[in-house]
Amino acid sequence: MKNVLVVTYSQSGQLNSIIDNVLKALTGKVNIHREYLKPKPEFSFPWKDIRFWDAMPECVEMVPSKLETLDFDISIDYDLIILGYPIWFLSPPIPLTTFLKSPQAKKAMNGKPVVTIIGSRNMWVGAQEDVKGMVMENGAQLVGNISLHDRHHNLPSVVTIIYWMTTGKKDRLWGIFPKPGISDKDIEEADRFGPPILNSLQNNSFEGLQDNLLKLKSVEIVPSVLSIERKGKKIFKIWSKFIRKKGEPGNPARKARLKMFKWYLLFVIFIVSPIVTFFFYLTYPLFFSKINKQLVYYKGVKPKN
Predict the structure, then answer these.
(1) What is the distance between the alpha carbons of residues 302 and 41, in angstroms, rounded to a whole number?
(2) Cβ neighbours around 290 below 10 Å, total
C-alpha cells in the first residue's frame, strides 16, 4: 500500500476537521501516518490578548521555535506528504515553519510530492508563497493546494475571528455577527477533494492534480482581498522587524510596540481597507489583465521564476 504522511497544526481544531474529511477517500486504501505538531511551549487556545499579538513578529519573519518530539517514522519512503495549516498574520503558523525548517522534514520530503491544505479567514496567498519556498528548499514538489476560507465579508470576519481566537467561542457574537471561521458545510464537503488525490496516488502521477482540484473549487480568491493582503504583507514585515528590536517573544520590552501594532492594524482594517477596496474596484478595469494573471498564478502550485 502507498504511504501518506499527513503533517498538521491546528490550534482550534478546525483545520484537523477539514483534513479528516479530505482523508475519508484515502482511509483503508493507503497507509496514513498522522503527525500532529505540538509546539513547546504550547500556544494556548483561546489566546490571551498580548500573547496573540506577541506571535506576530516571529510568524512574519518565519523564525523557528521548538516542537515536541516528532512521532512519524523518518525511514519510510512516503509516496505523498500532506501539509495542513491555518494562517497567522498573513504567514504560516510558527509550528509549521519550525517543522519545515527541521532536518527531519528535509529528509522525509526530499524528492516527494506535496499537497497543502489551508484553513483561513480569507488571506492566505502570502503564507502559501512562504510555504512554497520552504517546500522547495526541502527538495519537494508542490503538486496540489486546497484552501478553504470564511466566506463572510472581510470586516465582520475580522471581528468574529478575533472574538473566536480570544474567547474560544464559535457562536454568533451578540446574536448579530455570523459564526466565525469556515462554515460547517464547507468543512463537511471537503471530502470531495479526497478522490482526485487518491486517483493520483494510485496512478503514480500527480500531473494535473491541481487542475482537477480547481474544478472542485479548491481555491477561490477575491481580487480586492488579494490586493489588500499583498500590501499588508509588506507592512507586516516592517512592523515585525520594528518589534523584534525589543527582544524575543515574551520580553516585556516588546509590549508597547505590540500594542502600537494592534491599534494600527485595527485602524487599517476598519478605516483604511474599505477606502482601499473602493479605489481598487474603481481602477479594476485598468488593471484587469495584470490582476487576472495574478489570480491564475496564485491558484496554481508553481513557484515564481
Answers:
(1) 34
(2) 8
pLDDT tens readout for residues 70-122: 999 999 999 999 999 999 999 999 999 999 999 999 999 999 999 999 999 99
The whole domain housing 11 covers 3-223
Q: Give the residue among 95, 104, 98, 109 at the shortest CA–CA distance from 137.
A: 109
Alpha helix segments (H runs only) across 170-272: 184-188, 194-202, 209-215, 223-244, 255-267
Closest CA to 134 of 74, 210, 83: 83
Instruction: Output the nine-digit C-alpha cell for 218.
Output: 479548491
When divided into structural domains, the chain yields a total of 1
272 vs 37, 120, 166, 181, 205, CA distance in Å?
A: 36, 22, 24, 23, 46
- Angstrom CA distances, 288 to 22, 124, 230, stand at 34, 21, 16
Summarised one tens digit per residue, pLDDT across range 132-186 is 999 999 999 999 999 999 998 888 898 998 889 888 999 988 889 999 999 999 9
Look-up of cell digits 506528504: 81
Given a contact cutoff of 8 angstroms between Cβ atoms, the answer to whether 303 and 132 are in contact is yes
pTM exceeding 0.70: yes
Residue 46 is part of a domain; what is its CATH number? 3.40.50.360
Q: Map grid coordinates 483561546 to a residue.
A: 46
Nearest-10 Cα torsion for 100, 104, 105, 111: 150
**Spatial distance between the Cα atoms of 90 and 233, rounded to a whole number of angstroms:** 6
